[in-house]
Amino acid sequence: MFNLCYTEIVPNTLGMQNQFVVPQFLDVESKIFGPITVRQFLILIVEGLLIALFYRLFTVVVFGVLTFITGSIAAAFAFFKVNGRPFHLFVINFIQTSKRPPVRMWGKEYSDSELEIFRARVPAVVPPQVVKKARPSESHLAKLSLVVNTGGAYKGDENHGSEVPLSIK
After folding, report:
1. Cα(34)–Cα(21) distance, rounded to whole angstroms?
2. Which of 86, 99, 117, 152 is the most exposed place for a label (fewest CB within 10 A)?
3. CA dist 46 to 13, 20, 43, 50, 113, Å?
4. What is the pLDDT of residue 11?
5. Cβ burial 83-99 (10 Å sphere, 16+ → b, else e)
6. CB of 150 within 8 A of CB of 166?
7. Is 34 left (phi over 0), alpha (psi -120 to 50) or beta?
8. Which range marks the domain in which residue 80 is found?
9. H or E segment to which residue 127 belongs
10. Is residue 153 part of a domain?
11. In a domain, 148, yes or no
């Protein structure tokens, strides 16, 4: 038998290590009789009841055909697996996928009246106005570079009355 849990050592906030049991194999079903799980056992019991009902209600030929059909379906649902998953999950996923369209596209078609309303709502495209900024003069660039280079110690030329920011950070 294999181990269903393993112990993981996790450090806590105090630096000590705590042990936690981390469950594994959560999708393993409980076994009842040998390799038979609860789900398989219930499917086989329902199939047995159906066979008993068919035996009481129908003739031998109809009983044999119905027993073969329902027995095959019950055996598939009880024991058959597709890609390691139970057959009933495969059937459910197949039905859900079949109901949905394979490609989802939004292809709304407009009537002529809707197109006219849409054209009336859309404003004419106005090209954006380009605002040209004045280029700083050479002397102003030189003053700014002095402020940056001196870390804000340079306060500007007070003779011309131009104020340069005290610090640029």
Report:
1. 27
2. 99
3. 54, 41, 5, 6, 61
4. 60
5. eeebbeebeeeeeeeee
6. no
7. left
8. 29-99
9. none
10. no
11. no
Residue 43, domain member (yes or no): yes
In a domain, 3, yes or no: no
What is the number of structural domains in the chain?
Answer: 1
pLDDT in tens, the chain (169 residues): 445 555 555 566 665 666 777 777 666 777 887 888 899 999 999 999 999 999 999 999 999 999 999 999 999 999 999 988 899 999 999 999 888 877 777 777 888 888 888 888 767 777 888 888 877 666 777 888 888 888 777 776 654 444 545 455 4
Q: Would you say the C-alpha torsion 140, 141, 145, 148 has a positive or negative sign?
A: positive
Name the CA radius of gyration of the chain, rounded.
Answer: 40
Q: What is the pLDDT of residue 159?
A: 46
Query: Given this model, what pLDDT does residue 17 score?
Result: 65
- The string of DSSP codes covering 18-78 is EEEEEE--TTPPPEEETTEEHHHHHHHHHHHHHHHHHHHHS-HHHHHHHHHHHHHHHHHHH
Token pair 């459910």 is at which residue?
A: 92
Residues facing 10 on adjacent strands = 18
